[in-house]
Write a structure and sequence with these properties.
single chain; alpha/beta; disordered N terminus; Spore Coat Polysaccharide Biosynthesis Protein SpsA, Chain A; 2 domains; seven-stranded mixed sheet
Length: about 260
């Protein structure tokens, strides 16, 4: 959505997307208040590009390396002072949009955290650690994401104060377990590759101890049991994810 007449917003929404035709329209609609919407598309095999353009977004398709790098490509195309980053499965609420527009015109801060209300298989997850999810998603356009393959984040200058929005993004993480396991394999592989490159190694003890510790922390200490069957399943999946990551790192370690 290129600049529209009369739109005084100083915010560009940047959305990274890969095979997100089911989500991208609603995501774009939720940020139509922004001056422009830029979708950074990554080798989609569905009609993500067509849907995004029909919804009014500008679509670019740079060579993919990491999510952070893809977002940086969109940031570099932005014409406004502020950047709002979303994933295709996220929605900006009207309340958050109003708060952002009121805040950016009168702040000296360079970045803001935005709480996320996370949904899993149709249910909002309020415990297990998901309730404290507050990534930096609103920031001045001179900032960039780091090069991490996983757990990428905005590089905020050391010592800078990071603000926090009261409004939330709605984050519809997985509508099916097929979606979860598709990302499960990719992210565990990227995590192992990234950490191996940093010099980390893993042994059998890590594979044995870390998964149950993750389950106990998430399900018991962080109250995952309060989310019922969804909380139990998420805690089990988190433990399985930890096992997969360290197993892949161990595999790389023994091939040295």
């Amino acid at each position: 959505m290129s600049s529209s007449g009369g739109n005084s917003s100083v915010v560009t929404a940047v959305i990274a997307a890969h095979d997100e035709s089911a989500n991208i329209h609603e995501c774009i609609v939720s940020v139509r208040w922004a001056r422009e919407v830029i979708v950074v598309e990554n080798d989609s095999a569905d009609d993500t590009i067509a849907v995004a353009r029909t919804a009014g977004a500008t679509v670019i398709s740079p060579h993919f390396t990491t999510i952070g790098a893809a977002r940086n490509q969109g940031i570099e195309r932005a014409e406004t002072e502020w950047i709002l980053v979303l994933d295709a499965d996220e929605r900006c609420t009207p309340e958050l949009a109003q708060e952002i527009e009121q805040t950016v015109h009168r702040t000296e801060l360079v970045a803001f955290r935005i709480p996320r209300r996370n949904f899993f298989l149709g249910k909002e997850i309020r415990h297990g650690g998901w309730e404290s999810d507050k990534p930096v998603r609103l920031f001045r356009r001179e900032l960039r994401y780091n090069a991490n393959m996983v757990h990428e984040h905005v590089d905020v200058p050391r010592g800078a104060t990071i603000g926090e929005m009261k409004g939330s993004l709605l984050h519809y993480t997985y509508n099916s377990l097929d979606q979860y396991f598709e990302k499960f394999g990719r992210y565990s592989r990227w995590w192992a590759q990234q950490n191996y490159a940093k010099g980390r190694r893993a042994g059998p003890a890590m594979i044995f101890f870390r998964p149950p510790l993750r389950f106990i922390k998430m399900y018991l200490f962080r109250g995952g049991f309060l989310d019922g069957a969804h909380g139990l399943l998420l805690s089990c999946l988190a433990a399985a994810s930890v096992m997969a990551k360290y197993a892949r790192l161990w595999e790389r370690s023994i091939r040295e």
